[in-house]
Amino acid sequence: MASRTAGHLSGATPVLTAHGVGRAFGPSVVLAGVDLTIARGEVVALLGGSGSGKSTLLRILAGLDGEASGTSVVHGTAAVVFQEHRLLPWKRVADNVGLADRHRAWPTELSGGQAQRVAVARALVREPDLLLLDEPFGALDALTRLRMQILLRRLRAEHGFAALLVTHDVEEALLLADRILLLDDCRIAAELPVDLAPTRTPDDPAFGALRRHLLDRLGVPTP
Ligand SMILES: Nc1ncnc2c1ncn2[C@@H]1O[C@H](COP(=O)(O)OP(=O)(O)OP(=O)(O)O)[C@@H](O)[C@H]1O
């Protein structure tokens, strides 16, 4: 597996290119022949059933899996945010992020939502070209999750980073992504552009139609 980071290239260059990515754990094949390109500034959501290989693919793209086959190149810099914040408990919050210390709190003193905000700040402070987000809000309560989704939208509008967002949450994908990929049967089985009005409210009929379509593809019955 050649997973590497290339230098900063021209604007037309995608921020991520992956070809023929494969991964097996013993006899169990999880990914086979996955091709993926993410344009600069594009937010792509990766949906799929539990165990379909979403986190495995994200780890490969992040260069955290040395056992995969195929090639994956980030054209620029990438930063990863996981479901658990993974802050360093022996460092104060500001030291975790690398910012001037104004609040002087330890990560253990933070709520889940606060800790995840710090994790996002830590990822963004280096101004990455690509954010790799693995269920970043999956452990948060519904209200905090919505706040974080709105925050991520705002940050993306301000900073213009590209992102790959692994999520179980169809509405989260529809709220945040420009394009949705469905991972099934070891490969990217479907790809949908999210062509919605900028507000992306769930009561928009086009939002509802896409939501139903995705749930149907994921095998979730809708009323
Ligand atoms: N280190 C590992 N050793 C053995 N099997 C693994 C390992 N990591 C992942 N797997 C297996 O690979 C498959 C895909 O796992 P992965 O975590 O990528 O799925 P996922 O789509 O992210 O699932 P979920 O949505 O439930 O988090 C699963 O069957 C899992 O058991």
UniProtKB/TrEMBL annotation:
GO MF annotation list: ATP binding
UniProt KW keywords: ATP-binding, Cell membrane, Membrane, Nucleotide-binding, Translocase, Transport
Source organism, top-level taxon: Bacteria
Domain (ABC transporter) ranges: 16-210
Signal sequence interval, chain numbering: none
Xref: InterPro entries: AAA+_ATPase, ABC_transporter-like_ATP-bd, ABC_transporter-like_CS, ABC_transporter_ATP-bind, P-loop_NTPase
Record has ATP-binding as a keyword: yes
Endoplasmic reticulum in keyword set: no
Protein name: ABC transporter ATP-binding protein
Species of the source: Micromonospora tarensis
